[in-house]
Amino acid sequence: FKINNMKTLVGVFVIAMAFVHAGYAQDVKEKDVPIALKNSLVKNFTTNSADWNKEGANYEASFKERGNEMSVVFDGAGNVVETEKEIKQSELPLPVQNVLKIDYKDYELEEIAIIDSKGTITFETELERGKDSLEIIFNADGKVISKTEKKEEKD
Prior knowledge:
Blueprint: H1 6-22, E1 26-28, H2 35-44, E2 51-55, E3 58-65, E4 68-74, E5 80-86, H3 94-103, E6 108-117, E7 120-129, E8 132-138, E9 144-151
Antiparallel strand pairs: 1-2, 2-3, 3-4, 4-5, 5-6, 6-7, 7-8, 8-9
């Protein structure tokens, strides 16, 4: 595994930390969310309510924006740390679409999202083939940043 530049390293670090913190997410009632975060949500997005989770020192708001699933991670002061927005396959960069068509042609594309983590843009895809599923994060050039395999457990 070779890191070519600092921007890639930061992106990989952010993604890795997201996976680490995902296990620590706790539901938070809207009344318990700091007012600065709720104000930032209303100011920056077209919603005034969301499902909230606490992830370490950060808070994640999940909601619908113009009919698409979206989540936003805020720091304790209400600054946006990361956004994740559901998109259509046609909105993926062509290099990502090409990699999916060639390398993952046997998989069905279940979900796609664009992630903006402090200006670093990546694309998250969830693919399924039978009982196997993959979560793959790509950069805009179609390079795989991370790939997680999941197998459905037998009953």
